[in-house]
Amino acid sequence: MNSMLYVLIGTYTLQLSEGVYVYSFDPVTGESAYVSMAAVENPSYFVTDKTRTFVYAVTENDDPSYANALSFDNETGTLHLLNAEETKGAAPCHIDIDKRKRCVVTANYGGGSISVFPIRPDGTLSPVSQVIAFEGKGVDPERQKSPHLHCVKFSPDGRYLFASDLGTDHLYRFETTDSGNGGYIKEESLTAFKVEDGSGPRHFVFHPSGGYLYLINELSGAVTAFTCDDGHLSAFQTIQADTLHAKGSAGIDLTPDGRFLYVSNRLKGDGIAVFSIDPSNGMLTKVGYQPTGRHPRHFVISPDGKFLLSASRDQNVVEVFEIDRHTGLLRNIHKDIHVDMPVCLGFIHPAHPPL
Question: Do β-strands 307-312 and 32-39 pair in parallel, antiparallel, or remain unpaired?
Answer without folding.
Answer: unpaired
